[in-house]
Amino acid sequence: MGGLRLPVLPSPLEEIADARLGGRGVRLLLKRDDLIHPDIPGNKWRKLRGNLDEARRLGHDTLLTFGGAYSNHVRAVAAAGRLFGFRTVGVIRGEEHLPLNPTLRFAVDAGMRLTYLDRTSYRTKSSPGVVDRLRAEFGAFCLLPEGGSNALGVRGCAELPAEIDRPFDVICCSCGTGGTLAGIAAGLAPGQRALGVPVLRGARFLADEVDALQRAAFGVNSGNWTMAYDFHFGGYAKSTPELARFIADFHDRHGLALEPVYEAKLLYALFALAADAFPPGTTVVAVLNALADRAFRATPSPT
Ligand SMILES: *Cc1c(COP(=O)(O)O)cnc(C)c1O
């Protein structure tokens, strides 16, 4: 569907008037990174851009990356490879399931070759043993880590805050690998802070990941970010009736179908925390990397 249109930066900024926040003097701005490209979710493009330049500079014609069977990153690498003329290989965690799910179907249609690693090998996917086996099978490649979260990717995300041409106090994003939060926090001005909302259960390890990514990309931890761990709704890609109601209500109020794995949990957290976390007069920016694939319907359509 994205065809050959190129990603567009900067992404738009949009104010959302919501009485639940407005009533206490809090303004909410959405950074619409979902509009950067239809097949390369916003932060995936921000993380890939520098990596693609580097791959080209080093003379690579093949990108190889890792992810789960529903990975937005794997899908985005496939789309970017087609768009910018790289061959792509996706190394998928677990066994092959046929027919392919829509994420992997898209990737294959975009020209990506897929291979599968059992869960034990997947845990050591960056070890020389596993990488050598992949090179024997696929030839030379530029290796992109899971989620695209390496130093170049994090530096790409650090460019986001400078695109925001209005004063703000707090910027919030959802967290999978934490690369997006690591970059965004590093790009803030003094006095501004970042809040990350992990979508995984038991994600306290993520603070160390963000710390390590910031040190790799910038040499220091920016010290201006925190995380809210209690909004995973059971874990990655899990949901509850309460989250579903929130998504339906948000769609009714604002006409936006929130993407359920990451961004609905981010927005839910933001409204839940508003009273404690944001004093009157606070301007909050929420980064939306994607919307839902299909327009949300409050009642399932009869099919
Ligand atoms: C990948 C992704 C995230 C998580 O980004 P990380 O940098 O891995 O933390 C958030 N939202 C969407 C829509 C994504 O595709």
TrEMBL record:
One annotated GO molecular function is: D-cysteine desulfhydrase activity
What EC number(s) does the entry state? 3.5.99.-
What Pfam families would the database entry show?
PALP (PF00291)
- The organism's place on the tree of life at top rank: Bacteria
**All residue ranges annotated as the Tryptophan synthase beta chain-like PALP domain in the record:** 8-288
Q: Which SUPFAM superfamilies match?
A: Tryptophan synthase beta subunit-like PLP-dependent enzymes
| Hydrolase recorded as keyword | yes
Cofactor entry: pyridoxal 5'-phosphate
- Residues recorded as bearing N6-(pyridoxal phosphate)lysine in the entry: K44
Give the keywords, sorted: Hydrolase, Pyridoxal phosphate
Catalytic center at which residues?
A: S71
Coiled coil start-end: none
Instruction: Enumerate the PANTHER family for this protein.
Output: 1-AMINOCYCLOPROPANE-1-CARBOXYLATE DEAMINASE-RELATED
From the Swiss-Prot or TrEMBL record, give the protein name.
Deaminase
Which taxonomic lineage is given here?
A: Bacteria, Bacillati, Actinomycetota, Actinomycetes, Frankiales
